[in-house]
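Much of what follows relies on a compact textual record of a protein's fold. The record below shows the convention in full:
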Amino acid sequence: MKFDPESYTITIRKEEIDDEILYVGRVAEFPNISVYEEDFETTRRLIIDAIHTLKRIADETQSEFPSPSPYVALAESH
C-alpha cells in the first residue's frame, strides 16, 4: 500500500499564542510535531511535509515508522 500521510491523526486549530492568532497543526502519532502558521493551508502543507520527512528518514535509516492510529468513531450525544 502506498504511504499516505493524510491517514494520520492531524489536527489544525486556531489558538491564541503570545497575543497572536495562529493555526496550530499537530499529529497525534508524532507528539513532537507542531506547526504554527498564520493560515490553515500553510499549516496543513507543512504538517504533511513533516510526516513525509519523518517517513523518508525512517526509510533511510531502516527505522520503524508508526502506523496511523485506527479510526475510532465518537458516540453521538443526545
In short: The first strand starts at residue 10 and ends at 17. The CA atoms of residues 5 and 51 lie 6 Å apart.
